[in-house]
Description:
mainly alpha
Amino acid sequence: GEPSVRYLYGLTLDALGQEDAAIAQWKQTVAQNPNALDAHERLGEVAYRRGNYAEAVEHFAIPARRAPSI
């Protein structure tokens, strides 16, 4: 489906260097739609950059479980 406005706003905030505000938008995105795979990927990327590897794995695992098997 189409990405949510909240997710896109998070991308904008992240591009402007407002990482904490972007995280808040993406967390709200996944709270509203647990299947928002793009938001989980972004949250995983940020968690990884911050050294929060366990949190990163949790977020990366969600899109990976939904990926089609080859």
